[in-house]
Structures are given as structure tokens and as C-alpha cells.
Amino acid sequence: MRLAIVLALLPAFSNGYAEESAAPSIALTLQRETPPDTASPAPQWYLDDIEFLTKDGGRWVTSNAEYQSESEPMEAYAIEWKKGYANSMTGRLFGIVDGKETGDYWRFRQYWHAGEGKAVLEQFGFGGAMGVGVLWREDDRTKTAQTFYPPQGAPTLQGHIAYNPDAETHVTESYNIVDGEWRPNRTYTWKRETAPDEG
Q: Which residues, in sequence order, are bridge partners of residue 172?
């Protein structure tokens, strides 16, 4: 069942419409014959995003009541972000059933690629699915476009729009991108859960 849940959540997680020309290329040129003339420093919006999401333990929880079903029994989802080296962060997404945590459905790695001048989001799902793409800022929202590769079958293009209404709230809207059109899918409102003091 966990694999089915992961595939169902393909468009639901990673981070309103935009003209296609406003989005940077999803293609990542990670190998070059010659290095760039200079590295591109991470922009302030990207650094602020990491600070916001990882603050106070980086744990966020959202209700899944709107989408809960027999095949998707989670009453809630949670995600935990941790700050990493070199303007990066890692995360994990898991479910909550009967008040207990499930195993991880997704694991994330987000970083600033100084050579490409792009923010990159990679995620790896239980069962072998993976997604990779880029993030950018538009007005007060962070937009993400990723190509998702299932273990078998054709890849799909998914988008996210994320914004923060207040210091304790993070909203994510997911989209299926078909022929350049962003078609709405799920919306989740996440609330920060401050980690308890240790000791």
C-alpha cells in the first residue's frame, strides 16, 4: 500500500499561474567542459526560505481530512526539514495514522547550485520514484517545477506554489503541468510544530 500512496502523492509535495516564459529551465546542466567564470551566490529569498522552513526544529503538520480514503488512510501528513551545508537542507515526509507516524514516503534534498545559478529540489520516494527540478521566486511565492520519474513508465511534470501567510503557516498548492498549463491538484495548509526542548 505504501507504494500506491507514494505514487498518489507525486504531485502533492515538493513547493497563482505564471506564464511559461517566467519559469527557468528545468534542465540542469551539471557537467561542463569549462567551469563558469564565477559562482552565483544564493539569493536572499532562497536563504530566507531555508531559515523559515527549518526554524524551531523544522517540523510541519497538515490535515489530510479532505483527501483521506480507504486507500489513503492518513489523517495527517508531517514533514521535517533540517538545515545542511552550503545553503542546503534535507527533509522527510511521512504520514500519521491513528496518531502514530508511518515510515517516510519522501525524502528531499534542496540546494543552491552556484555553478548553474539555480535552486534545485530533488526528492526520492519509497518504491523508487524520484523527482528533480528547480525553484524560483515570483512575487511573494516560491514556485517549483519538477520532472517525476516512476520506477517504470513515463515521467510526468509537476509544479508547486508555496507561500507563508504568517510565521507559523506554510501553504503548498500542487499542479499537474500539461502542455505548459498548470492544472490545480491538491492544496495543504501546514502548521509549524515546535520541537520540544531537549533535556
A: 162, 188
Q: Enumerate helices (H) and strands (E) in the chain, giving the number of each.
A: 2, 10
Q: Which domains are present in the chain?
A: 2-18+38-192 (2.40.128)
Find all residues with CB under 8 Å of 41, minimum gap 6, and list them.
114
Taking the complete model, does pTM exceed 0.85, yes or no? no
129-158 per-position pLDDT tens digit: 999 999 999 999 999 999 999 999 999 999
Q: Which residue bears the cell 481530512?
A: 65
Taking residue 165's Cβ as centre, other Cβ atoms within 10 Å add up to 10
Following CA atoms 58, 177, 120, 15 in sequence, which dihedral angle do they give, to the nearest 10 degrees? -10
